[in-house]
Amino acid sequence: MKDKCQAIGDNRVSRSNQVIELVGNTPLLELSRIAEEVAPVRIFAKAEWFNPGGSVKDRPALNMILEAKKNGQLTPDKVILDATSGNTGIAYAMIGAALGLKVTLAVPGNLGDLHRKILKGYGAELAFSSPTEGSDGAIRLARKMAKERPDLYYYVDQYNNPANWMAHYNGTGLEILEQTEGAVTHYVAGLGTSGSFVGTGRRLKNEKKDVRLISFQPDSPMHGLEGLKHYPTSIIPGIYDEELADEEIAVETEVGQEMALRLAREEGILAGTSGGAAVACALRVARGLSSGLVVTLIPDGASKYLRHAFWENPEP
Ligand code: PMP
């Protein structure tokens, strides 16, 4: 097998280059059925599950790693370290494998079995924080590990790393401007690290002063909108810009789940619940308009979350 691969190897573009080149430039889909009730207002969503690691987090993960390689903080002898309860970890693990770099992730002890297998599948090492402390417990563990072994780890720190939001400033934001030919009037995004809201939002505001930026977050600390944070009870990310949003929305888990079902059944899009919540918020914004073009992100697909019973509900 090895010999065979080597025999055809000379003329190939290396695997790592090909995988990494697939990050970003995702399709922008019009949600025409969901938006029927708000016509002539139109709603579009960036299909972020098209990224090779399956989520929007491939964008910041790749940018943060490439930036750290460029500025010399991430040398080949170092291990990539960060706290992540999901998609960023998958992105680091995939990109680390593609670039031949080791990855260690601090994750909450109650991380789902499927996530664990995906991360292990890519060859990442896992360090578990207390299952009762959620993603903030994982952040505290990563900080401690980085402090104890600065010689071993490059601590990416996605919550405080400007290369996180810059990935969206130079990628997602520009793509939305191009794909809508500048017609975007509203941008709606959920808050996790806030990178996708802050980076995309800043780019849109810079290019189009009157664009309205709407952020949303779960309405309670114990929620089921995976990838999102309830800011009033969380460590606020250093990259978050509290001046940026023109409007803020608090969303219930059930609203995200209901819209995830509607997206599956009316648009053929099997989105995660943060994507469901994003489209529900986009629709809420659109209902208040008489004209406009509302853009949101669907951060990932549902395949990692299908253990949740609501997927079998006959009606949204
Ligand atoms: N949805 C999902 C499914 C995510 O994994 C994340 C990232 N944690 C987000 C939304 C929020 O993205 P950001 O970190 O850019 O705020």
Proportion in β-strands: 15-25%
Sheet with the most strands?
Answer: 6 strands, mixed
Structural class: alpha/beta
SSE succession: HHEEHEHEHEHEHEHEEHHE
What integer value in Å does the Rg equal?
19 Å
State the total count of DSSP E strands: 10
Shape: globular
Q: Could you list some keywords that capture this structure?
A:
6-stranded mixed sheet; 316 residues; alpha/beta; 10 helices; Rossmann fold; 16% strand; binds 4'-deoxy-4'-aminopyridoxal-5'-phosphate
Topology:
Elements: H1 2-9, H2 15-21, E1 28-30, E2 42-47, H3 58-70, E3 79-83, H4 87-99, E4 103-108, H5 113-121, E5 125-129, H6 134-148, E6 153-155, H7 162-179, E7 186-190, H8 195-207, E8 212-218, E9 247-251, H9 253-267, H10 273-287, E10 293-298
Parallel strand pairs: 2-10, 3-4, 3-6, 4-5, 7-8, 7-10, 8-9
Antiparallel strand pairs: 1-2
The protein binds 4'-deoxy-4'-aminopyridoxal-5'-phosphate.
Cofactor: pyridoxal 5'-phosphate
Family: Belongs to the cysteine synthase/cystathionine beta-synthase family.
InterPro entries: Cys_Synth/Cystath_Beta-Synth, P-phosphate_BS, TrpB-like_PALP, TrpB-like_PALP_sf
In short:
This protein is of the alpha/beta class and 316 residues long.
Walk me through the structure.
Pfam families: PALP. The chain is an alpha/beta fold. It has 2 domains: 19-51 and 170-312, Rossmann fold (3-Layer(aba) Sandwich); 57-155, Rossmann fold, CATH 3.40.50.1100. Helix content is 40%, strand content 16%. It contains 10 helices and 10 strands. The protein has helices at 2-9, 15-21, 58-70, 87-99, 113-121, 134-148, 162-179, 195-207, 253-267, 273-287, and strands at 28-30, 42-47, 79-83, 103-108, 125-129, 153-155, 186-190, 212-218, 247-251, 293-298. The chain has a 6-stranded mixed sheet with strand order 1-2-10-7-8-9, with helices on both faces. Helix 7 crosses helix 8 (195-207). It is globular. It binds 4'-deoxy-4'-aminopyridoxal-5'-phosphate (PMP).
